[in-house]
């Protein structure tokens, strides 16, 4: 894939939002116990899974979630795909706030719906929601759903409570469903505070919350968990999931999820502290050593967003600098709907020494 995307595999990859660390030992231990028992039976202890997620969110975010209000689905992307099909019709418009996780567009278009962009604005050193455009889009009557990303991937914003309240109040005005992707909701750095849509008492909303993928490095074995206090919405997605026999987990996923949320807090706190240190180093290094590159310091997520336009390079020259000379594989901003080819995203959930070596090599090539 590196050869296909970057034209070389002689690069250090920072392009996928996976962590580059061994997972927490409580998860490894419980999976090893599962292997040692030599039995993989039909089993899904949904009550324990949902209680573990609820307890975790109460302790970390003071968020009160009712375990019985969760619906389990195979994964985050399948959750979004099901919600799009259940709560919109072919041809409907679904609003996204670009630049945003590129799979949103694919899921919308593959379902025969229209992507409606509400581009974020840059104010100073961070991105903000363009509420004037947002309301104009909803006022048009063409928007059936808002697909929100909080914390926002790739720009790293953690939307404030007041921003989310404004977003919800406008959605209420036009009776528009909000789907909030909150899978990065625990990766929050000092100075920011996470607010879930589930805490804002909007009856026409569903939240994708509780996937251990990003927190614990379980990307390929994690489920997705949809939450809503609206019984009608919840029962509809539960019926869809059940009708396709997607409402059950496998033993590995179940035990890993329970172990993560019940016993992974110490490990996760260490991971969060480590990646915050890495973020701080990147921001400081870029400001002092590569000030031509605009760096958007993330409030959350392990993704950092760069604008390389200050280097004055053409797109092909910039790609060659990054991949062939500095030997780093970043994610092109165009994947996220950013029209300017000078923007790239970097996943920094990697050993600090590796990140330092990569950016120091980049500095040496820029001169």
UniProtKB/TrEMBL annotation:
Enzyme class name: lyase
Domain of life: Bacteria
Keyword Lyase tagged: yes
InterPro entries referenced in this protein's UniProt entry, alphabetically: Aminotransferase_I/II_large, Class-II_PLP-Dep_Aminotrans, PyrdxlP-dep_Trfase, PyrdxlP-dep_Trfase_major, PyrdxlP-dep_Trfase_small
Sequence ranges assigned to domain Aminotransferase class I/classII large in this UniProt record: 51-350
Cofactor: pyridoxal 5'-phosphate
Keyword Metal-binding: no
EC number(s) from the headed UniProt entry: 4.4.1.13
Pfam family, one: Aminotran_1_2
Record key words, sorted: Lyase, Pyridoxal phosphate
CDD domains in the cross-refs: AAT_like
Annotated family: Belongs to the class-II pyridoxal-phosphate-dependent aminotransferase family. MalY/PatB cystathionine beta-lyase subfamily.
Protein name: cysteine-S-conjugate beta-lyase
Taxonomic source organism: Pseudoalteromonas aurantia 208
Lineage of origin: Bacteria, Pseudomonadati, Pseudomonadota, Gammaproteobacteria, Alteromonadales
């Amino acid at each position: 894939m590196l050869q296909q995307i970057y034209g070389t595999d002689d690069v250090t990859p920072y392009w996928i939002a996976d962590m580059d660390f061994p997972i927490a030992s409580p998860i490894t231990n419980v999976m090893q116990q599962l292997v040692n028992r030599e039995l993989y039976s039909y089993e899904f202890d949904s009550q324990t899974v949902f209680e573990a997620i609820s307890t975790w969110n109460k302790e970390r975010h003071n968020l009160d979630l009712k375990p019985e209000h969760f619906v389990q689905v195979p994964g985050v992307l399948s959750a979004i795909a099901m919600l799009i099909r259940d709560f919109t019709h072919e041809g409907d418009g679904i609003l996204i706030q670009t630049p945003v996780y590129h799979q949103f567009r694919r899921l919308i278009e593959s379902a025969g719906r229209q992507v409606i962009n509400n581009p974020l604005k840059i104010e100073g050193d961070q991105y903000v929601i363009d509420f004037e455009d947002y309301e104009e889009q909803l006022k048009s009557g063409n928007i059936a759903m808002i697909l929100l990303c909080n914390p926002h991937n790739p720009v790293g914003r953690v939307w404030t409570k007041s921003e989310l309240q404004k977003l919800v109040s406008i959605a209420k005005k036009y009776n528009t469903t909000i789907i909030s992707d909150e899978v990065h909701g625990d990766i929050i750095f000092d100075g920011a505070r996470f607010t879930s849509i589930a805490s804002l008492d909007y009856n026409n909303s569903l939240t994708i919350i509780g996937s251990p993928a990003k927190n614990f490095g379980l990307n390929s074995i994690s489920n997705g968990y949809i939450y809503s206090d609206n019984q009608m919405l919840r029962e509809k997605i539960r019926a869809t999931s059940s009708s396709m026999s997607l409402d059950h987990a496998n033993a590995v996923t179940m035990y890993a999820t329970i172990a993560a949320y019940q016993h992974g807090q110490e490990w996760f706190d260490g991971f969060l502290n480590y990646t915050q240190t890495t973020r701080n180093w990147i921001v400081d290094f870029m400001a002092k050593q590569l000030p031509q590159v605009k760096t958007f310091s993330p409030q959350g997520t392990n993704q950092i967003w760069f604008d390389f336009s200050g280097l004055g390079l053409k797109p092909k020259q910039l790609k060659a600098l990054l991949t062939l000379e500095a030997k780093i594989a970043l994610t092109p901003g165009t994947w996220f709907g950013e029209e300017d080819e000078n923007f790239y995203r970097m996943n920094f959930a990697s050993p600090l020494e590796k990140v330092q070596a990569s950016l120091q090599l980049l500095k040496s090539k820029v001169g």
